[in-house]
Write a structure and sequence with these properties.
alpha/beta; 2 domains; two-stranded antiparallel sheet; 7 helices; binds magnesium ion
Length: about 220
């Protein structure tokens, strides 16, 4: 009888290899719809390819239409555009208003790790984009629900930890795998905010200035 392997084991980089100190508070921050206006950038990319991008759902592929069509384009077609965007154009999105200022301030007192579920071909463009906008912090690319990798990263930190993402699936996963990590939901795109579901299980803060203050409170005075 062979025991089944645990499914949540994830090999995460060490904090040292990312240039992060274990002894400082650690904030793990998403890119798309948290640090960067993904829907705006991807929408412009899709429209330049002759499609319509309609922000009428909190979704990606179901918002891509052939001009005038009633039904969204095939998911496989959307996926090709998505992969192409990450390979060639993901360095052209706009930062979310207030994000760079808030993280720059937070980085004086906490370690910042940027955790993005972008395809591997986005690594160079995404890293360049972060540096160009004044965010030289460590970048880790992953895939799937972020709880296991977040637990593997926060498990190495001695101090308080926090996690920010736009997707409930990632926030729920972190609640399950790293329950001591403070969780915040942020949805950067103003058009998406009313469409994005939230949950009583995670604090939702769509304003970056307010989110920066909440992160400082969670990381620097976690028992206050
Ligand atoms: Mg995101």
């Amino acid at each position: 009888m062979v025991e089944s392997r645990p499914t949540s084991v994830v090999i995460a980089p060490t904090l040292e290899s990312l240039g992060l100190a274990r002894g400082r508070p650690l904030a793990i921050i998403d890119v798309d719809e948290v640090l960067g206006l993904f829907m705006q950038g991807f929408g412009a990319f899709v429209e330049a390819r002759g499609y319509e991008f309609r922000v009428d759902r909190f979704a990606i592929f179901q918002n891509i239409y052939k001009p005038g069509a009633a039904e969204h384009a095939a998911i496989a077609e959307g996926r090709r555009l998505f992969d192409d965007f990450f390979a060639t154009h993901c360095g052209e999105i706009e930062p979310a208003p207030g994000a760079v200022q808030a993280l720059t301030r937070l980085s004086q007192r906490a370690e910042i790790l940027i955790l993005s579920n972008a395809p591997a071909q986005a690594r160079a463009l995404r890293g360049d984009w972060l540096r160009r906008h004044g965010l030289p912090q460590a970048l880790v690319l992953s895939s799937g629900p972020k709880g296991p990798i977040t637990a593997a990263l926060t498990g190495q930190a001695d101090g308080p930890t926090a996690f920010v993402d736009d997707l409930l699936s990632n926030l729920d996963s972190v609640a399950q795998h790293a329950p001591d990590t403070a969780r915040f939901q942020h949805v950067a795109d103003q058009r998406l905010r009313p469409l994005a579901p939230s949950s009583d299980a995670h604090r939702r803060i769509d304003d970056w200035t307010e989110l920066g203050v909440a992160l400082e409170q969670a990381l620097l005075a976690p028992h206050g």
